[in-house]
Amino acid sequence: MTAQVTDRRPLTGEPVALDLLNTRWVVDGEPFDLFAGAFGLTRVEGLALWLESVGLADRFRADAATLVHLLTARESLARAVAAPADEGARALVDAVLEHGRIRATLTSEGPGERAEFADPAWGPAWIAARNYLDLLVAGPDRIRKCAAESCVLHFHDISRNGTRRWCSMAACGNRAKASRHYARTRVR
After folding, report:
1. Prediction pTM value
2. Could you give the C-alpha distances from 166 to 10, 31, 73, 102, 113, in angstroms and in order?
């Protein structure tokens, strides 16, 4: 990977499933895709950057097979998040989940779990799909798309009262407030 490349996506640090969705974003009407040349990176370098950002770089290789499987998971999750009642979308997520399983273990700290994959290239895709299930258990209504019309980013609303609307108050939220203020002052 290119030396000292920083992740310049507008929203990072979300749960793995949503962070994967957020590898596509829009800036000033121009779409970007971390896995399709954003920041001048190759597709596999973008994958390596993403694996590092979500803490999976030490467990999985950034290679073409992993990228293909991760893109499959991203499309499946995008459909499931956009239309949770869509049976076809659920089937796509299930298809990704078929490539791994949870194995119960006994560790020195007590009971544990370990993910297992017949093909390790499916690991990051499976982890993202599994994380989506965990988010659904925690509260499907907390999985949100940014309220800004031009924004395609998603977030997990962990605010106490569940009223977060923007991917970032500093970006989308501020633009919306400024737009409303401008509209009010124009009317006078």
Report:
1. 0.89
2. 12, 19, 24, 34, 34
19, 25 in Cβ contact below 8 A? no
Q: What is the pLDDT of residues 40-70, one digit of tens each?
A: 889 999 999 999 999 999 999 999 999 999 9
Long-range contacts, stretch 117-124, CB < 8 angstroms, 24+ apart: 119/65, 120/60, 120/61, 121/60, 121/61, 121/63, 121/65, 121/66, 121/68, 121/69, 122/69, 122/96, 123/56, 123/59, 123/60, 123/66, 124/51, 124/54, 124/56, 124/60, 124/66, 124/69, 124/70, 124/73
Distance between CA 138 and CA 119 in Å, rounded?
29
SS3 content of the chain, % helix, strand, coil (to 5): 50, 15, 35
Question: Which amino acid is present at 162?
Answer: G
